[in-house]
Amino acid sequence: MKVLVTGGAGYIGSHMVKLLLASGIDVVVMDDLSGGFRDAVVGGEFVVGDVGDRAQVERVLRQGRFDSIIHFASFIQVGESVAEPAKYYRNNLTGTLSLLDAAVACGVRHFVFSSSAAIFGEPKFTPIAEDHPAQPLSPYGFSKLAVERVLADYDRAYGLRSVCLRYFNAAGADPEGLLGERHEPETHLIPLILRAAGVSSAHVKVFGDDYRTPDGTCVRDYVHVTDLCQAHALALDWLERKKPSVAFNLGNGSGFSVNEVIATARRVTNLPINVQVAARRTGDPAVLVADSAAARRDLGWAPQYDSLETIVQHAWTWEKKRRQDLINRSAGITKKI
User: Fold this and answer.
1) What are phi and psi of 212, to 5 degrees?
2) Which residues form the catalytic set?
3) pTM (whole model) above 0.70
């Protein structure tokens, strides 16, 4: 099997590349490095490129027979998408259309899409199953939903079959400590908490402590990044077995509150973590939890790292490595000076 991984230098994409290579799959990574890191790509062929450049994508695809594309290359910040919708529609939607057109032109048969729980908007019920109404609240969510609908049409018209995987909250890091989460700026809760661990000048903002939840803070569904990647591998197998295009929700099915995550991080790190309660953010639902029964039943998805303790422990191992790397680089710069 030969697979093109777009956005393969990013957080989830880099973990996916590692898993594919370990499975003996021929991997080509395409990433424009606007949000990814070249040193996060542990192997395979690497191409610096934009998925919106159809000519370049076609040149890559025509180098050999690609069975599938796994598409991670998108912008992901909900708040930024509200402030800069053009950026999100141009990259997440228009760029993906160019990628799909190149795939069809080059005879690629299978497409696995990194979608999002953001397509659902304010939950009408929880846990959220695949048939929950899709009513996005942000351009980011709309861009993901639009691609899902495009994929359905491309299947009917061109025979490009797809699996859309809707994550809730990707979290954690490579269990071997080789890879982890690094966004600049960082917006995800667990790395923000861990960056504040033991740092007296830092604090974690808790946006609202008066929700209708057991402890008043928002409840979110965290799923380990390695388990997410395993779901993508199973999606490839689903398509290879000539199964129909489909969408699956991916989460742990229970959810953890912000306060629970902070308490877990304090136990794992054995360090103080300062907290500052702030006003609620507009559009933050009290509870977002996935119903992943379909993925478990149909894909055979069985998450290995579904305890919050394990997710935070793996993320903390990575955070300590990140801190040491920063110290080493700083020492190197000082030495040169």
Assistant:
1) -80, 70
2) 140
3) yes
